[in-house]
């Protein structure tokens, strides 16, 4: 009951007319939330903007989800929510580049070069 006449608390004679206005129900349209996981950002955002309101977008690295695709959403897939509800996305930056650890290098082995005796180290055994 959204309205009545005479108003609440009024005294009326027995048998007199009381008019009641009854709501026909909620005018809110409910939508079933899609699963946007793995969907390209541009497609998911365009779809959400048609039926809901995009609250926020965050980005993080993912080894499983390609860059530019949805990792997660704030409202679970399959849930019915009022049209115009807020939804947030986490979008993949792709795999995080990790600078490879350089392989340990061995100290170079000094080359062994034969050392020849100098001229003054020769002994002349000629008589």
Overview of the structural elements:
With 127 residues, the protein is mostly beta strands. It is 9% helix and 24% strand. It is built from 1 helix and 7 strands. It has one helix at 41-51; strands at 3-5, 19-21, 30-32, 53-60, 70-73, 80-82, 86-92. A 3-stranded mixed β-sheet has the order 4-7-5, with helices on one face. It is rod-shaped. The model has no long low-confidence stretch (mean pLDDT 85).
State mean pLDDT (0 to 100 scale). Answer: 85
The arrangement of helices and strands along the chain is EEEHEEEE
Number of strands: 7
Number of helices: 1
For the CA atoms, what is the radius of gyration? Answer: 41 Å
Strand content: 15-25%
Distance between the termini: 140 Å
> Biggest β-sheet: count, sense, barrel?
3 strands, mixed
In short:
By secondary structure, the chain is mainly beta.
Q: Keywords for this structure?
A:
127 residues, mainly beta, 3-stranded mixed β-sheet, 1 helix, 7 strands
List the helices and strands and how they pair.
Elements lengths: L2 E3 L13 E3 L8 E3 L8 H11 L1 E8 L9 E4 L6 E3 L3 E7 L35
Parallel strand pairs: 4-7
Antiparallel strand pairs: 1-2, 3-6, 5-7
